[in-house]
Amino acid sequence: MEYELDKRSNALKTFNTTFIIIWLLIACFPFIWTFWGSFKVRADFFSRADWWYAISAFNTLIETGGQFTSNAYSEAWTEGEFWKASRNTIIVTVFVVTISLFLGTLGAYALSRSTERYAFWILIAALIFRAMPHITLVSGYLFPFFELQIWGILPTTIVVLVAINQPFTLWLLYSFFKTVPKELDESALIDGCSYFQAFRYIIMPVMWPGVITAGLFSLMLAYNDFTVTALLLNQENHTMVPKIQSYLGTNQHEGNLMWAVSAVVSATAPLFMLVMFFQRQVISGLTTGAVKG
Amino acid sequence: MKKILLTLLFILFGTTAYADGHCSKPSGSINILANDFPALRTFVETAKGCKGSADFKVTHSSEHNKIAVPALTANPSEFSARIAANSSIVPLMNQDLIRPMDDLVKKYGKGIQDSQLITIDGKVMAVAFMANTQHLYYREDVLKELGIPVPKTYEEVVAASEKIRASGKMQHPYAAAYKAGWNLAEEFVNMFIGHGGEFFKAGTAEPNINNAKGVATLNMLKKLASLSNPDYLTHDSEAIKVEWESGKVALMTLWASRSGTLLDDEGDAKITAATKLTGPATVGGGNIPAATLWWDGFTLAKNRSDSDAEASFIALAHAASNKKMVADAADQAVWLVEGFVPGPKSIGVIEAVKMGAKPYPMLPQMGLMHGALGSEIVEFLQGKESAEQALKDVEAAYISKAKEQGFL
Amino acid sequence: MPNKTFFWFFLPTGLAMILFIGLPIISTGIQSFYAQHDQVVKEVKKCDPFGCTVSIVVDQEATSVLRDERPLGKFNGFGTYFDRNHLAIEQITEFWDETDTLGDFIDQVTNLPFYKALLFTLTYCLFVTPNVLLLGFIIALSLNAISRKIRGPLIFGTILPMIVTPLVGSLVLFWMIDAEGIIGANLQLMMEDPYLSLKSSRTLTWITIIIYGIWHHSPFAFVVFYAALQTVPQEPVEAAIIDGASRYQRIRHIVLPHIYPVVTFVALISLMDNFRVFEPIIGFSAEGSAQSLSWLIYDNLVNEEVILFGSAAATSMMTIIGIAILLAPVLIRTWKEFRTAR
């Protein structure tokens, strides 16, 4: 749905713009601060003396001779082996998103088109499933996985992330399928399509915004998960978040905070591309939907 | 024993001839689980140098505690060896997951010193290679200027801090990692041991902290907290280290292993130059320091083939007796390995050992007590309940946990 | 849809959920009714680099006999649920008899770990959920009215709070709100209180975590609402404009009813996620002032050397029940709709 700007009062327009600007400032400021700080040394960015150090680069000047330094980046990526973690994250996210969406759309479509009582109870069960704290679930997995000797490898983690995320994906897609009128696929069924064909050729194109949204959330989960990846992967297969955690150090031993900061900034950059893609796809879904509908 | 160790420390510090630890090329498969910090990485890398034809894998993880028990319970175990500390060896012992290694020590442990061996009921269960403790750091310039001698007891720390505060130089002159949870509980453990307390009634798992020593411990913690930054309940070792670097603190209790960054050339040169280390303080007129000694060492999984255990032992023993490693990485830790020359950064640990500090209690139920302390004494520090009430809460929380675990 | 078709459509996802969530929940449920065996201890000599002591260890021979007899442990019924660290039935009865005023009684009860955590968890849910829904919806409407050309980057900016990994996101924020950090120091200036610190008092810590919660979760509501707004059909809106409906009326009578299923979804999920609040407590090192149910579970499983699985299992089951109770109104409504749709 598009509101034409010219149809609206100027006051509303100004209010709208101001609101968005303020919100964006609040939303982005911590990240902009992190981005800026990632080019400083630890003594400036994590300073208890004066936060102004992070702007004036007091210690950065002393230690590196310049206002900005990209040492944290180069060290984290090489010495910190962040490249390896990025590679693993890409593998995990691609598989998790694809499999989640495949399973989720099929299941949610069935749920949204079933009039049987059990469909409702399945939805409730899924919701209860989602209520289970992840940390308890993962603690339960550890022993069986070790016993079956499937601990530490990427496929196990991918399957677990897909499964853990299914209740959410199902509910999200179910809500979106509900907004698609039933008459649409019923007419296709009358025309002689099978349920799968109706699903594939009639419903999916209309559902595109929902599918893309579900994909975005699966991606977020796989990308940002700590509990599952930190406990189920061995060092060789660690993804970005457990890697970043390992830069933070322990109680007794010093970590490398600036590596963590630069790693977070590097990890956020590819998401920018993905969000742009998301935005385009959601809009294009609108147009296809309009044609078909 | 203390004497033996001291002689040992001092004789060995004189050793200058560096030789590589010997390595009798193992075969089989080695897989190590360890915490994640630089000194352990160095140690495991050194062990890798002696992998022979064995398949060598390692997982450094901040979540190692959580992974260890299920991993070693499985048969065959995922890991052939696990690097543990005094506290994290306990669950492995409780569940009977690690094997005695007397034979292996006899056969391959030539370079390992007797003092490195952790024996329980006469059997070698682990080989230690690093030590750590919390001790005092002070600002020489500030103390000198105000004519305060270096404090030896926590009572003197309080007096010195009050004097510094009164002088107007610093508002919150003392710092320690009082973050609610593990850190705060660790401070309680230190202070309670300094008061000569025993956590449990002898030979049982019955709690024994709700007494005069417990109250004295809490009161001392509160006094110190009142001299610290008001956010002390959120401050971990990292936070207080940064506070130190900002020059707002003159006395601090911190891990010896974190002295590295305080004494390096990053940060304010004036503060670095004035940062001095001394042993841990005593408290309440006691003569043992209010601190606990920690070691890190390796253990071998029980549910794994003998040949893998042997291979792992050979590689790890190579590192645990490697003079070159301790010489190259002298800054990373206080090594217990022969050939280590302690530098200025190790003063705290050496002093603590000299003063007869006790190790962190290696008891099956200690973790439960530590956990109960971490959350239940917070309200006392916030001034919301009395010391007696807080200690009663700790005991009650501990008893529920211990009952569930079958200790009571 | 015929049952058979339904079965094949649903099989893959159903299988994944049963295997990786359903069965573990059942097993967790069973384990919450068991306690560990009695640990037989004996005194032995222990030596480490710092000296020798005589203290206790678990007697493996004696304990393994017990363990082999009953591998699940000692049946404990609701013992773990009712002990001091959970529902504390005994302690509460005691307090009820001992205390004179209701205020005292409440004070005593909220000193117990479970109720302390429950109080924070509910407060957090109560403040965060409605604000997230509202803020998310307003942002979605506002952004939807902005020119498409610049919308991409704006959306990215909007969802940044959600996508920066909470691990470091809250670490950076923790430093920013420090009394010497950029936000903390400027707050002191604004409030003209040089001793103001967001971390030192319980109330301020709670407020900080709640604001963080709203900031962190609003993008989620925004994304779903924004996507749902794209599916609102154009014709009725245009017709309404011609009929002279105000903006508010259009939203109230056309947009909201259309995206209603999605609103329910966001409400359900936010409520559930907020009930499981946990990450900000770790990130802000706020354990001293704020504990949630999920934090208790984490504490049992991770913080201690000895893993208290039975205790964590009991808290997890109670979390599920708590969420079921909270969601009940929404669920009953869904059920009514489901029946009318049939």
Your description of this structure?
The complex is a heterotrimer of chains A (293), B (408) and C (342). By secondary structure, chain A is an all-alpha fold. Helix content of chain A is 77%, strand content 0%. Chain A folds into two domains: 5-74, no CATH class; 80-292, MetI-like (MetI-like fold, Orthogonal Bundle). In chain A, 56% of the residues are buried. Chain B is globular, with a radius of gyration of 22 Å. The two termini of chain B are 33 Å apart. With 408 residues, chain B is of the alpha/beta class. Chain C has two domains: 37-69, no CATH class; 113-341, Orthogonal Bundle (MetI-like fold). Chain C contains 15 helices and four strands. Chain C has helices at residues 3-31, 60-69, 79-82, 89-98, 102-109, 113-144, 148-163, 166-176, 182-191, 202-229, 234-242, 247-275, 279-283, 293-303, 309-341, and strands at 34-35, 41-48, 51-58, 74-75. In chain C, the strands form two sheets. Chain C has a two-stranded antiparallel ribbon with strand order 1-4. In chain C, strand 2 (41-48) and strand 3 form a beta hairpin. In chain C, helix 1 (3-31) packs antiparallel against helix 15, helix 10 (202-229) packs across helix 12 (247-275) and helix 12 (247-275) packs antiparallel against helix 15. The chains are: A mainly alpha (293), B alpha/beta (408), C mainly alpha (342). Chains A and C meet through helix 1, helix 6, helix 7, helix 8 and helix 9 of A and helix 1, helix 6, helix 7, helix 8 and helix 10 of C.
